[in-house]
UniProtKB/TrEMBL annotation:
<dbReference type="InterPro" id="IPR035985">
    <property type="entry name" value="Ubiquitin-activating_enz"/>
</dbReference>
<dbReference type="Pfam" id="PF00899">
    <property type="entry name" value="ThiF"/>
</dbReference>
<comment type="pathway">
    <text>Protein modification; protein sumoylation.</text>
</comment>
<dbReference type="GO" id="GO:0031510">
    <property type="term" value="C:SUMO activating enzyme complex"/>
</dbReference>
<dbReference type="InterPro" id="IPR000011">
    <property type="entry name" value="UBQ/SUMO-activ_enz_E1-like"/>
</dbReference>
<dbReference type="GO" id="GO:0019948">
    <property type="term" value="F:SUMO activating enzyme activity"/>
</dbReference>
<dbReference type="GO" id="GO:0016925">
    <property type="term" value="P:protein sumoylation"/>
</dbReference>
<comment type="similarity">
    <text>Belongs to the ubiquitin-activating E1 family.</text>
</comment>
<dbReference type="InterPro" id="IPR045886">
    <property type="entry name" value="ThiF/MoeB/HesA"/>
</dbReference>
<keyword id="KW-0833">Ubl conjugation pathway</keyword>
<dbReference type="GO" id="GO:0005737">
    <property type="term" value="C:cytoplasm"/>
</dbReference>
<keyword id="KW-0539">Nucleus</keyword>
<feature type="domain" description="THIF-type NAD/FAD binding fold">
    <location>
        <begin position="14"/>
        <end position="326"/>
    </location>
</feature>
<dbReference type="InterPro" id="IPR000594">
    <property type="entry name" value="ThiF_NAD_FAD-bd"/>
</dbReference>
<protein>
    <recommendedName>
        <fullName>Ubiquitin-like 1-activating enzyme E1A</fullName>
    </recommendedName>
</protein>
């Protein structure tokens, strides 16, 4: 495979990437069809990255209309788009980022249903579901596994954000550091668990230092939000929801065996603040989480670098993020 396989326009547009990643990695991106579900702030940033990088086709599923709240983190939208379907308002602006990428929109969530989701993903290479509820993420992840499709999910809750990926058995090329100065590359294969198994991860094998480095208060606040949403059908929105969220977070901490010398209870100031902000999007947090999500999808497609393994949590209160290997060997 050589640069001659690319058109002159492609060579000009992707020259820097081809030199950085190599011809084969760029070819894999060009051949890829990516399905992204829900066009909110996280997806907006991720889509920008993967479209500019030169994937082959993007399919966006979203049945909602643009609201005034979407204008903050959704830079594909304008004031005059309020009331229009999100995908219809954004399509032309996404296409203008890179005319070489085919953009297809699906203005309904019906294709995510129990019967039709398997059909929806049949001809795609990777699925990315953003800002979605945990129980449906588990279901869609299982459908993707049966169809042998890599699966990403990501989203933000106020100042917190996450990325999860299930890449099945994923191969990538890595330098063989044991060879010293004459380092060659070797193929590395990593096995990923589905979300349902990842959520059963035990923390009691970690040392105090290892536990502290993973910022469990951020991780378990996100997991508690998922559980709260599953129980109540919505995210917490007011201070009176704090006690319920705190109880869930502390129960999850205890059940997972988190080192008690590090954390016995989720910080009350964190659960209190997230109870009033979880339902809102903050543009800087969406930019960071969505940017990392897009870059990680490109890593998976290019197979030249290790993707995250397998749960990334971002804490906007400190501006830091951590990667947890949840039930990965």
């Amino acid at each position: 495979m050589s640069s001659a396989d690319f058109t002159e326009e492609e060579q000009g547009r992707y020259d820097r990437q081809i030199r950085l990643w190599g011809i084969e990695a760029q070819q894999r991106m060009r051949n890829a069809t990516i399905l992204v579900v829900q066009l909110k702030g996280t997806a907006t940033e991720a889509i920008k990255n993967i479209v500019l990088a030169g994937i082959g086709k993007l399919i966006i599923v979203d049945g909602e209309e643009v609201t005034e709240e979407d204008l903050g983190a959704g830079f594909f939208f304008r004031d005059e788009d309020v009331g229009k379907k999100r995908v219809e308002a954004a399509k032309a602006r996404i296409e203008s980022l890179n005319p070489l990428v085919t953009v297809e929109t699906v203005p309904t969530f019906d294709v995510l249903g129990e019967q039709s989701f398997e059909t929806t993903i049949r001809d795609v290479d990777l699925v990315c579901v953003t800002d979605w509820i945990r129980d449906d993420l588990i279901r869609m992840n299982e459908v993707c596994r049966r169809a042998h499709k890599p699966f990403y999910s990501g989203g933000t809750y106020g100042l917190l954000g996450y990325i999860f990926c299930d890449l099945l058995k994923h191969d990538y090329i890595s330098p063989d550091r044991s060879a010293g100065e004459n380092a060659k590359t070797v193929k590395v294969t990593v096995s990923y668990p589905p979300l349902q198994d990842a959520l059963r991860h035990r923390w009691d094998t970690l040392t105090r230092r290892q536990t502290k480095e993973l910022n469990p208060s951020c991780v378990f606040t996100i997991l508690a939000l998922w559980q709260y949403q599953s129980i109540h059908g919505a995210l917490p929105k007011q201070l009176t929801d704090t006690a319920a969220l705190q109880s869930i977070a502390d129960s999850l901490l205890s059940d997972a065996g988190v080192n008690k010398q590090v954390l016995t209870t989720t910080p009350p100031d964190l659960t209190e603040s997230i109870s009033t902000t979880a339902a809102h999007e903050f543009s800087p947090v969406c930019a960071i989480v969505g940017g990392m999500l897009g870059q990680d999808i490109l890593k998976t497609l290019g197979a030249r670098e290790p993707p995250i393994a397998n749960f990334f949590a971002f804490d906007g209160n400190t501006g830091s993020g951590t990667v947890c290997r949840m039930n990965m060997s």
